[in-house]
Design a protein that fits this description.
Oligomer: single chain
CATH class of the largest domain: Alpha Beta
Strand order of the largest sheet: 3-4-2-1-7-8-9
CATH superfamily of the largest domain: Methylesterase CheB, C-terminal domain
CATH topology of the largest domain: Rossmann fold
Number of domains: 2
Shape: elongated
Order of helices and strands: EHEHEEEEHEHEHEHHHEEEEHH
Number of helices: 10
Structural class: alpha/beta
Radius of gyration: 25 Å
Strand content: 15-25%
CATH architecture of the largest domain: 3-Layer(aba) Sandwich
Largest sheet: 7 strands, parallel
Length: 343
């Protein structure tokens, strides 16, 4: 068998580099290409048409259950994981991973689970670190790992994290990837000697079926004191190679880096929610005082207490506002840019 399953993941800056990549693929490519670009659920889904304008290969948005062919590029649909089975593609609305659906890790894991050493995984430009765990599994199953040179990437975080956790076979600029893929796709794939682990099978099944608890997610690692930012379920800790990850009992998955970003972003949202609630109580106190004044103000002591309490409440809101303004969403990528809190 040849190395004829190519899976590609990109995020920030991805449209431009994907356009360049597909433009360079030969019309006689003897491989199937699958692409995940981080996009929102409300995205109009025009990536396939954008890429088709540059590609000599047919490009289409993947359809659930269709048989994939060599010499064809399949693009993930908004709000659906793109999964590669034995001879078909599957679209699934499984739990988000690293805040994304479609997720790069889900695509990479499914492909190497089904096709082992035939898989070539490519991590391109993007923020945070989706793709690192999936690329590790590609290598673990005997596949080939390609990472865009971080110095060449518009958003270098994803390539840097991938290189920190995976011994890539090739680290090249985007312009060199099409020719490299064409050459590798003509090579024989070595026999896959590492069988799929129970952990890999469980994670692929979670992405496909969404029934994380029934599929044994709680057996993937020890329970942690952390909770899922999306559903507030308990998180279990996992580790694939050097990549630390977490899954909750409903299936949402995070790298430790993405979890930090999510938790600190939630703290900021909670602070502003607190400010809203406190200011709302101050407005209600003032309204009560005005209503008493409108009735003749026969209890000036009570009216004064209501106004005093309203002013005191607003002062507390201002204190929290200063904390909210200075709060920052953190990740491993921006820690060096964050100024220490004054003591």
């Amino acid at each position: 068998m040849k190395k004829d399953i190519i899976v590609i993941g990109a995020s920030a800056g991805g449209v431009a580099v994907l356009s360049e990549l597909v433009a360079g693929l030969p019309a006689d490519l003897k491989a199937s290409v699958f692409i995940v670009l981080h996009i929102g659920a409300s995205d109009p889904g025009i990536l396939a048409s954008i890429l088709q304008k540059r590609s000599r290969l047919p490009v289409s948005e993947a359809r659930d259950g269709e048989r994939f062919e060599k010499g064809h590029v399949y693009v993930a649909r908004p709000d659906y994981h793109l999964l590669v089975e034995a001879d078909i593609v599957q679209l699934a609305r499984g739990p988000k991973e690293n805040r994304s659906r479609p997720a790069i890790d889900a695509l990479f894991r499914s492909a190497c689970h089904a096709h082992g050493s035939r898989v070539i995984g490519v991590v391109l430009t993007g923020m945070l670190d989706d793709g690192s765990s999936g690329l590790w599994w590609v290598k673990r199953r005997g596949g080939t790992a390609i990472v865009q040179d971080p110095e060449d990437a518009e958003a270098p975080s994803m390539p840097r994290h991938a290189l920190a956790h995976v011994q890539a076979d090739h680290v090249v600029p985007a312009s060199a990837i099409p020719a490299l893929l064409a050459r590798l796709s003509r090579e024989e794939a070595l026999p896959t000697v590492v069988e799929p682990s129970q952990e890999l099978e469980t994670e692929v099944a979670i992405s496909r079926e969404s029934r994380a608890l029934q599929l044994g997610v709680m057996n993937l690692g020890p329970i942690t004191p952390y909770t899922c930012p999306e559903c507030h379920g308990c998180l279990v800790a996992m580790k694939a190679g050097g990549v630390r990850r977490f899954r909750c009992h409903t299936g949402h998955a995070y790298s430790i880096n993405t979890l930090l970003a999510e938790v600190t972003e939630y703290v900021g949202e909670a602070l502003w929610t607190s400010i809203r609630a406190i200011e709302e109580s101050a407005m209600l106190l003032d309204q009560m005082a005005r209503e008493m004044e409108g009735k003749g103000g026969q209890d000036p002591v009570a009216i004064g207490l209501l106004h005093d309490k309203s002013r005191d409440t607003l002062r507390r809101a201002d204190t929290i506002r200063q904390v909210a303004i200075s709060h920052q969403t953190l990740s491993q990528d921006n820690l060096a840019e964050v100024e220490p809190t004054a003591r």
